[in-house]
Amino acid sequence: MEIIQLFNYVKVFHILSVISWMAALFYLPRLFVYHSENFENENFAEVVKIQERKLFNGIATPAMVMSILSGITMIFLQPELFKTGMWIHIKLLFVVLLLVFHFSCLYYLKKFMRDIRVASGRFFRFYNEIPTILLVVIVVCVVLRF
Fold this sequence. Notes:
Helix content is 82%, strand content 0%. The protein is an all-alpha fold. Helix 3 packs antiparallel against helix 5 (130-144).
């Protein structure tokens, strides 16, 4: 198999992994909104805890790992990507920020699991917009390649 063909297969896997990761990062903070706003309702909170934990551990984290591994593989297969402009450097910076966001979700998840509410529903409504902004910058970089 040629390198370019292998690269394209890895890219397909990368795109699918990123879609899964982003779907989880879009939904998890929304669950935090509901959890925070219904904190006193113990039955509701227990159900949301299960959803948050399963979403983070079963979808978000595996998809993040697959996104990172496939991204590293693409760079390994075509290291000349670093010579194609600033886009790749900016994209990678925003991927690092996305990783920071991912692990900040883990922080809030752990607090909620211990029945600690650290922020309001309003905070999580704004927090929920962060991955969207990061994704927009990443997609613009990849498509426009400036």
